[in-house]
TrEMBL record:
UniProt source species: Micromonospora carbonacea
Presence of the UniProt keyword Zinc in the record: no
Keyword Disulfide bond part of the UniProt annotation: no
Protein name from the UniProt record: Probable DNA 3'-5' helicase RecG
Record field: transmembrane: none
Length: 743
């Protein structure tokens, strides 16, 4: 490895420090180009190994690292499955021997682990047929030479210290290569000016940046590592919170047209004709939104509520307030099925209030238009003319609303339903159709843990509906272990038939559409994302709607009226199927996750989710919210072949054990990469937020927000803190800042 004695700064190219070949590998495989990139490539965990171990003293179940020499290799076919097993016998100077086993066809490993090579082997000791072994151990081979220990003292020291950093790595750049590169860089690294204000560091008891960067890579003790991680987590949390607080501060100064309530208007008429009373939560949130709409600055509010909590009625009341004030409101839905459902539901709720220009229309009525990609040319021209002229006070649609040629007379409110289904650009394109920034209401039925709301939606005001309307029934959920107890699956189908016999309806949900070589579910609507086929690890492909429906029709559901719904159906066919199901003309709907949000059929009481382990926690919670929407109790059966005790089975057991969406959201967060939550996937950029845990660092995030609010109030553009402003820009780049702003 080529090195230089020149001082390294964050901007020094790695090729000057570690040599061109290694630098190329770091750039190509890990996107690391400068010394700053590398020192911010933090270890993902630390192994605690102590001194390397005498093989003869190993105990079964112990996590160990041994310094040993390869004695022989043996390759043989596996008995239970296809592929080969590589057994590598290693030994040390004490006379002890150990078998390292590697599964699968790995000829390259056999060539690498040739007899005579010394290495460090790390793993958990197991015993098989009286012989101690390590299954698939991590290892690093030391330099060539007769004396293994003398051949690579540096590698031994790096790998066998007290706290060994293990880095996010690639096959071409393993963790020990990264560790060597980090050591080279740190030997000459000059950290940048500490961006944290001295007062913040003192108040929050933070160590300096240079010490934190050194200790996180080469910790001198557990306490030093804790302090280093805490300081670097703070930098990440503070950068995000400063960005959000700045955005909120600037947005407060944007101009918007005030849309105050009007006595005797459509909103009052709607409230008078509602067949039920609003919940206390709906009234309280409605008052918050009404106050926001009445100001001369754009509302930017997140409305979250459990499935069936009545968010649509709250949003409709906000839209009517804007129409009463002379403006238009647009609701953006993620699928044509949901847009059409909203259209039908709103027309039913408004009745004569939505029939402007028709016989029987109420005084002052407006019209409600649906704009989707599948509209015929004549219907599209008519709808767009109504929108452009301002006669359509409420406009519902999918991403077709974003297209050029959809013009509003006076767009005053944008409602985004299930916002996580839309990209930043899509939401922004609709907002840009107004002359002044419109008011924005973002809705989600996916419960959001408090720290996620604070970190991802920190520039939005947050309202929550926690109370379910009267008449909603409880939903019981059970796991059906199809592989272990096939009789349970038979009972599930009989249970479905019992519900149909009682006059109710049912859903059967599959993770895949089927009849597609690519396994892609695109119909152009973004209706559903299909899990990838995972047969490379031995599992069969996920069950598909088009394959399951005929099997059910011929088998356990023979004689029932079965419909099929998925994202690749033509829009008119999707609408026809959904209408038939809603009107009771179908007993069973076999569908993909296209029914996940918004679909409302109160007579549906049972849902059977096949291959339930292929769905996420929040997705399952959303899906089961389609049943129990009427007076009869709901039943959700989660069918799986996942083994008892597996993480997939534990996840399903958790879903079955509670209907508390917030508890499940925290579980979901635990199991996902938090970088995704922070916008890395939406922006398509590599996330710089590496250490912060939205689940475990609640207090730190809360403290960072308090400091950010205080600092921005005193210095809105961070003009007196240029190093901090630069640090924020590096951690939360412009693209991610836009993502955070647009929510």
């Amino acid at each position: 490895m080529t090195t230089t004695s020149e001082p390294a700064t964050v901007d020094t190219p790695l090729k000057k420090l570690v040599g061109e070949k290694t630098a190329k590998a770091l750039a190509a495989h890990l996107d690391l180009h400068t010394a700053g990139d590398l020192v911010h490539h933090f270890p993902r965990r630390y192994d605690e190994r102590g001194e390397h171990t005498d093989i003869r003293s190993l105990d079964v179940g112990e996590q160990v690292t041994v310094l040993a020499q390869v004695r022989r290799t043996d390759v043989r076919p596996m008995r239970q499955r296809r592929g080969k097993l590589l057994e590598v016998t290693v030994g040390d100077d004490s006379g002890g021997v150990l078998t390292c086993t590697f599964f699968g066809n790995q000829a390259w490993r056999e060539r690498e682990l040739r007899p005579g090579r010394w290495g460090l082997f790390a793993g958990k000791v197991t015993e098989f047929r009286g012989k101690r072994q390590l299954n698939g151990p991590e290892y690093v081979l030391l330099g060539e030479g007769g004396d293994g220990e003398a051949a690579a003292n540096e590698e031994v020291e790096e790998f066998a210290g007290a706290l060994i950093p293990v880095y996010p790595a690639a096959a071409a750049v393993p963790t020990w290569v990264i560790a060597r590169c980090v050591r080279v860089v740190l030997d000459t690294f000059t950290p940048p000016e500490d961006p944290q204000p001295a007062a913040v560091r003192a108040t929050r008891n933070l160590i300096d940046l240079g010490t934190a960067l050194r200790e996180i890579h080469r910790p001198s003790s557990k306490e030093a590592l804790y302090r280093a991680r805490r300081r670097l987590k703070w930098d990440e949390a503070f950068a995000v919170q400063l960005t959000l607080v700045q955005r909120k501060h600037r947005a407060a100064a944007w101009p918007a047209r005030s849309r105050p309530p009007r006595a005797g208007g459509l909103l009052d008429a709607f409230d008078a004709r509602l067949p039920y009373e609003l919940t206390g939560g709906q009234r309280a949130v409605g008052a918050e939104i009404a106050a926001d709409l009445s100001t001369a600055h754009p509302m930017h509010r997140l409305l979250q509520g459990e499935v069936g909590s009545g968010k649509t009625v709250v949003a409709l009341r906000a839209m009517l307030q804007v129409v009463d004030a002379g403006g238009q409101a647009a609701l953006l839905a993620p699928t044509e099925v949901l847009a059409a459902q909203h259209h039908r539901g709103i027309l039913d709720l408004l009745g004569p209030l939505a029939r402007a220009g028709e016989l029987g229309a109420a005084d002052g009525a407006t019209s409600v238009e649906l704009v989707t990609g599948s509209l015929g040319a004549a219907a599209r021209r008519r709808a767009l003319a109504e929108v452009a002229a301002g006669r359509a006070g409420i406009v519902l649609g999918t991403h077709a609303l974003l297209y050029e040629g959809v013009d509003f007379a006076d767009l005053g409110l944008v409602v985004v339903d299930e916002q996580h289904r839309f990209g930043v650009e899509q939401r922004d394109a609709l907002r840009a159709k107004a002359e002044q920034p419109p008011h924005v209401l973002v809705m989600t039925a996916t419960p959001i843990p408090r720290t996620v709301a604070m970190t991802v939606y920190g520039d939005l005001e947050v309202s929550a509906l926690t109370q379910l309307p009267q008449g909603r029934s409880p939903i019981a959920s059970h796991v059906v272990p199809a592989a272990e107890k096939p009789a349970f699956l038979d009972r599930a189908w009989r249970r479905l038939r019992e519900e149909v016999a009682a006059g109710h309806q049912a859903y059967v949900v599959c993770p895949r559409i089927g009849d597609s070589a690519s396994g892609s579910g695109g119909s152009g609507s973004g209706a559903e994302e299909e899990p990838p086929r995972e047969d490379d690890n031995g599992r069969r492909p996920p069950l598909a709607v088009t394959e399951v429906a005929p099997l059910l029709a011929e088998g356990p559901l023979h004689g029932l009226r079965i419909g099929v719904l998925h994202g690749r159906l033509p829009a008119d066919e999707k609408d026809a199927v959904m209408r038939a199901f809603a009107d009771g003309e179908l007993d069973v709907l076999v569908a993909t996750t296209v029914i996940e949000v918004g679909v409302n059929v109160p007579n549906a009481t049972v849902m059977i989710v096949l291959d339930a382990d292929r769905f996420g926690v929040s997705q399952l919670h959303q899906l089961r919210g389609r049943v129990g929407r009427g007076s009869a109790a709901g039943l959700c059966l989660l069918v799986t072949e996942a083994a008892e005790g597996s993480s997939a089975r534990e996840r399903l057991d958790a879903v079955a054990s509670t209907t508390d969406g917030f508890k499940l959201a925290e579980l979901d967060l635990e199991q996902r990469r938090e970088g995704d939550v922070l916008g890395a996937t939406q922006s398509g950029r590599r996330s710089h937020l590496r250490l912060l845990s939205l689940l475990r660092d609640t207090d730190l995030i809360r403290d960072a927000r308090a400091e950010a609010i205080a600092l921005v109030e005193e210095d809105p553009e961070l003009a007196r803190h240029p190093a901090l402003a630069a640090s924020v820009a590096a951690l939360v780049d412009a693209e991610r800042a836009e993502y955070l702003e647009k929510g």
